[in-house]
């Protein structure tokens, strides 16, 4: 059975691998994925492609950019499989929202969920930076001939910093992964990149 909002929409079909839109293009309305899988991608400076998100099912695409001062797609969107996408022009959306409140609710919920996700992500990055700053000062203060030996357990150190133990462990793990530190024993680390600790 055809939904009322489909009376205001155009249906477009895309083949696997086909570009749906590119970063920087103007968003002129709401795209609704009806069938298939699409991927959001971003091209790096070195030419590599970084996949940001994969979407499937009845999904609103770039809903947060339909209105506002900068209505431009933030990423490239490509069809991972053959897919069908409905497009409702911006000027028709208000009518659709008035006639079908459930579409308005879905639209608002979608934008809210994305805003909450970004807020949580920003907070995590802020928390990471805050923990990192405290850890850096501690490492540099305890360093002797390039070696830092913690004078307390990780749990006690986390309490000293006022953070959770898992959060502190994640930052330490990140430092090891980035080869800023090398773990050489229980609560013992070799500082490989002192400048990185001074700059962070």
| Helix and strand element order | EEEEEEEEHHEEHHEEH
Count of discrete alpha- or pi-helical segments spanning 4 or more residues? 5
Structural classification:
alpha+beta
Mean pLDDT: 87
Order of strands in the sheet with most strands: 1-8-3-6
By CATH, the superfamily of the largest domain comes out as Jelly Rolls
Low-confidence stretches: none
The top level CATH class name of the largest domain: Mainly Beta
Distance between the ends: 58 Å
CATH architecture of the largest domain: Sandwich
Task: Using the coordinates shown, work out and report the CATH topology of the largest domain.
Answer: Jelly Rolls
* Main sheet characteristics: 4 strands, antiparallel
GO molecular function, one term: DNA-binding transcription factor activity
Organism: Fusobacterium necrophorum subsp. funduliforme
Keywords: DNA-binding, Transcription, Transcription regulation
Protein name: Transcriptional regulator
List the helices and strands and how they pair.
Elements: E1 10-14, E2 19-21, E3 29-35, E4 37-43, E5 49-56, E6 59-61, E7 76-79, E8 83-89, H1 90-99, H2 101-142, E9 143-144, E10 147-149, H3 154-161, H4 165-177, E11 181-185, E12 188-191, H5 194-199
Antiparallel strand pairs: 1-8, 2-7, 3-6, 3-8, 4-5, 4-7, 9-10, 10-12, 11-12
